[in-house]
Amino acid sequence: MDHYTNEAVMNKTYWIITIVLSIAIIIAGYFIGNMHKTGKMYDRYVQVKGLSEREVNADLAVWPIQITLTGNDLGSLKKALESQNEQVYRFFIDHEFTDNEITRGTTNIQDARANIYNSNQGNSEYRYLAISELTVRTSDIKKLQKALTESLDLMSQGILLGSKNSWKPIEYIYTGLNDLKPSMIEEATTNAREVAEKFARDSGSTVGKIRVARQGLFTITDRDQNTPEIKIVRVVSTIDYQLKN
């Protein structure tokens, strides 16, 4: 009697274990299949770029000026340079620039005869070359452009006025980027989604959630070489969108 009872218990336990294992295998298979399906769905995406551009006016201008003089007598050269520096300074004050907008720089005097690398030092008419620097920095762009035009009058006074940077005499800068960033990022994102939706329609799909978003760098460039005071602000965002059937 005990033998049959033990055998019945063992058979019952065996079937319970078999049923539990079968259920576990079915559940595991379901989850594995569902994970595979989800993974396949996650792999379906489209990568698009969204562009946003703004045309803005520069709000800061920097004009690095050089006053150049030549001579053979240091004393006379010093007096002439001081006189011209004062004339140039007064020129900008008369054009309504403030002391905060004008910065006096350094003065450098070169001796042609002391320059061992100057092979033409013996043929030079003047021994000394003096260069004095002055920088005008202002947010009033029109005022600076007016002064630039009228600075030709200084030439009639014998003042050789030039820019320290010959390739870009005046540097025009736009400082309001932080105010533009939120709206431009929003516009670039909207632009990207429109492109993604068009692609999805053409492929018989719909656009889902954002998978990955990469915000591009903001760039500020001159609109063209002739109007450097007008800037183009640009950003390109790259976004991956999920695609759904």
Tags for this model:
245 residues; alpha+beta; Translation Initiation Factor IF3; Alpha-Beta Plaits; 4 helices; 40% helix; 33% strand
Briefly note the CATH topology name of the largest domain. Alpha-Beta Plaits
End-to-end CA span: 65 Å
The parts where pLDDT drops under 50 for at least 5 residues are 31-42
Helix content: 40-55%
Our count of helices gives 4
CATH class (first level) name of the largest domain: Alpha Beta
> So what's the overall shape?
elongated
Q: Helix- and strand-based class?
A: alpha+beta
User: Beta-strand level of the residues, as a percent range?
Assistant: 25-35%
Specify the CATH homologous superfamily of the largest domain: Protein of unknown function (DUF541), domain 2
Q: Average pLDDT across residues?
A: 83
Proper CATH architecture of the largest domain: 2-Layer Sandwich
How many domain units?
3
What is the gyration radius calculated from CA atoms?
38 Å
